[in-house]
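User: Okay, second chain of the day. Same drill as before: sequence in, structure tokens out.
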Amino acid sequence: MTRVCERGHPLGFIRFPSGDRRGCDACGSEIRSSFALHCESCDFDLCGTCAYGDSVDGARGLCQLQRACAELNELEAASEEQEAADALFLDDVKLRQVELRGHLQRYVDRKPTLEDVAGRYESEISSLAAEVLRLKEENEMQCVSASHNDEDGLRGLGARMSRSKSPRHTEMQLVEEAREIRQFHFETQRKEREVQTIEYRLECSRDDMKEVTKLLRSRERNLEDMRSRQDEVTLLLQDLRMEHLHTTQEIERERGVVQTLNRQRMLMRESCYVPAKLRKHSGALMKFLEQEGGRLNTEKFARGAQVCTKLYNVVATDASSLQALAARAKASFDESFEKYQRHEQSHAKLLKRLHLEVTRGVLGDTDKISSTPR
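Assistant: Same drill. Structure tokens below.
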């Protein structure tokens, strides 16, 4: 059956910690259990006794409910502790992850050597050994303290105490000797580890030396081959130098021959070029001097004389009255033509004389140029 508050609101089941004190609004007593019925609207609390009555079944149900709430509280506390432990473990894991990442980054930046790895593990082993020594010393000290608190042990040792030192002093000496022995044992183990590390390093060095020896032998063989090749190349280089020297000498001789032939060619070219140049310039000079006369004008006057003769014959045949006039004209033309021929002959003689003088002058200049050293 659903329980309700004084105002008729349904009550809900709640749990609260044992330290949280609440009172029942029905009976007015303090709620000692870890649960109650509660109304959120009017803040009404009802204890289990008022809710379920004093009957046997109600009491049994209250006990079971109380045990269930206690177990639930224990489970919640254990869950909280486990969550806290998990959080601590997660923090430790994160710290370890950061540490490992730092180691990894250092190993990436610089490859670790055997000494680095051995040193790191040796430091860890040393810290653990120191912790073991400390725990054993504490255990021994506790054992010594317990033995001194034992009265039966003191009575059994009464006669000996009268003749020797105190048992506590003897036990402390034994503890000190045991501590020294353990330290010596740990130091011996440390030195053995160092010796093993050195032996391993020597073994690695021996393997490296073998590899280096093989490499050196192969390099020596390659060096011998290269030396033999160098000797061959040196001989070939000497042969090439001799051939180069002979070739250079031959080239110099051929160069001298070519220079001689070139000079001869230049002389022959000049000897061929001077007459051609002479003919060219003398021809140009003769053409310039013959502008007002020459063979063409003579032929033109000769054709004019032939035309005049034909005209005279035609006039004599067809117009006898004009024959006298034609005769005088023909006679005048013939006289002029004879004078022209005489002038032309004298002009030709003068041109030949001029041509001869020019030729002599050009040949003299050519001889001077040819005789000049180059």
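DSSP finds eight helices and five strands in the chain.

User: Thanks, on to the next one.
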